[in-house]
Write a structure and sequence with these properties.
It is a single chain. This protein has a 7-stranded mixed beta sheet. About 0% of the residues have low confidence. By secondary structure, the protein is an alpha/beta fold. Helix content is about 45%, strand content about 15%. α5 links the parallel β2 and β3. It starts with a helix and ends with a helix.
Length: about 375
């Protein structure tokens, strides 16, 4: 109790801080759902709250749905525009549900990825473009307007706001619009150029707007994206063509299909020079085992020749014949010329091995 009395003020401060943090977390938990980009209730720079409020003030009924089930329950008819943001959360199953339920509504897809573009039946895949200035409409529907964005997706199809890589606002067929510049709808860039007028004309043309924000919870197991689905259609045929071209090039440039032909060297090199140079290389590399193996192999060849044995005689028989010819024990001979003998540990043992092999060769030749 005495300790509590001394630290009463500190405990009250800590308790007040905990209560304040908990209250802030409780008060902000309802806003966490609307923290995503292009969310019509997100007041941040990447949100779209400003556009949603202006549409509401102009008499457009804005209905926000955040799941596939909620979209299926929404009323969608010929007087409705359906805009889909956060399109990266759409899978094959949710895309099928979207296309089935849209009916006669005008469908606007914001920055669809390659897989979604393919599922929508649009032939050309989007290309990333970086406009250096305002992009004029170039079409009657948005005559006199221009968009100003720093990055967008361009589509090689019919549409408006055409640049060098394609149109930013694609209209591949009636009732389907692809918006390749999501920045046109955001709070921080809607006032740039004529972005606001373009966004209001695009989404406010009908009496009702259904703003569909897909949820990852709606995806099924079959909606997983494979690497093949992200590749362009021309890549596989191009790889096959490249492979066939490589095979044809190999067949064309091949000199011959038979064994290699041996040709004499342009100069003659003395054997002693080759031996010395190889020895220097072995010494520089510290490969005593390889050098000892070369010495033993040469010794076996000389001993087989002196005993009139086949050049490729089995090492075990050679050891027995040398032992019988010199009177040495077979294990001693095998330790000298056997292919499985231990390599020398240092240069001194290597020099000693060479001397002992020379002495063994001399004994065989004298008998």
């Amino acid at each position: 109790m005495r300790w509590l009395g001394r630290h009463r003020v500190a405990l009250l401060v800590v308790l007040a801080a905990v209560v304040a943090v908990a209250g802030a977390a409780w008060a902000g938990r309802g806003n966490q759902t609307y923290a995503g980009a292009l969310d019509p209730r997100n007041p941040d720079g990447d949100g779209a709250q400003a556009l949603a409020r202006v549409l509401d003030q102009q008499g457009v009924e804005v209905d926000i749905v955040r799941s596939a089930d909620a979209f299926d329950r929404a009323t969608v008819d010929g007087s409705t525009t359906v805009v889909v943001t956060s399109t990266g959360r759409l899978g094959r199953s949710t895309t099928d549900r979207l296309l089935r339920h849209r009916g006669a509504a005008d469908l606007v897809i914001v920055e669809p990825g390659p897989q979604l573009v393919r599922e929508l039946g649009v032939g050309a895949l989007p290309a990333t473009t970086t406009p250096t200035g305002p992009v004029a409409a170039g079409c009657p529907a948005y005559d006199g307007l221009s968009v100003r964005v720093s990055r967008a997706q361009a589509y090689r199809t019919h549409g408006c706001f055409r640049g060098k890589d394609g149109v930013i606002l694609a209209r591949p067929r009636s009732g389907l619009t692809l918006l390749g510049a999501s920045a046109v709808l955001t709070n921080d860039q809607i006032i740039e150029g004529d972005n606001a007028a373009v966004a209001l004309r695009l989404l406010g043309a009908r009496q009702r707007l259904v703003w569909y924000i897909p949820s990852l919870a709606d995806l099924a197991g079959a909606d997983s994206v494979s690497v093949r689905s992200l590749l362009p259609d021309w890549l596989v045929p191009a790889l096959w063509l490249l492979l066939l071209t490589g095979i044809a090039l190999i067949a064309w440039r091949a000199r011959r299909l038979g064994p290699l032909a041996s040709e004499p060297l342009p100069v003659s090199v003395k054997a002693v020079e080759t031996t010395r140079n190889l020895g220097r290389l072995y010494r520089r590399a510290g490969d005593r085992g390889h050098a000892a193996g070369a010495l033993r192999s040469a010794a076996r060849a000389r001993l087989a020749e002196r005993l009139r044995l086949p050049r490729r005689v089995h090492p075990g028989r050679l050891v027995e014949d040398v032992a019988a010819h010199t009177g040495r024990p077979a294990p001693e001979v095998d330790a000298l010329i056997g292919p499985t003998s231990h390599p020398p540990r240092d240069d001194r043992e290597l020099v000693s091995l060479a001397s002992r092999l020379t002495e063994l060769d001399r004994e065989v030749s004298q008998r």
